[in-house]
């Protein structure tokens, strides 16, 4: 391998590393912002019991939904206030 080929190989490898880093960085940031938004939404919704959930027309609640909490999920299957 001559000197010019080595330089091209190093340049391509550097470009590949930069490209991979650049492509994944926004994805990680997007996931972080989704998680923080989701947590804020969940903490702002509270149902005293399943009757309140049903009156609000939100039953059933799935794990991750605003207002879901394990105390409302009797069988701990990730679905609260099942009918």
TrEMBL record:
Keywords: Signal. SMART domains: Excalibur. The keyword ATP-binding does not apply. Residues 46-82 form the Excalibur calcium-binding domain. It comes from the Bacteria. Residues 1-25 form the signal peptide. This is Excalibur calcium-binding domain-containing protein.
């Amino acid at each position: 391998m001559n000197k010019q080929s080595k330089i091209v190989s190093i340049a391509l490898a550097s470009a590949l590393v930069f490209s991979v880093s650049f492509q994944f960085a926004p994805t990680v940031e997007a996931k972080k912002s989704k998680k923080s938004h989701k947590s804020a939404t969940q903490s702002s919704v509270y149902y005293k019991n399943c009757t309140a959930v049903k009156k609000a027309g939100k039953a059933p609640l799935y794990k991750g939904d605003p207002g879901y909490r394990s105390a409302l999920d009797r069988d701990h299957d990730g679905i609260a206030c099942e009918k």
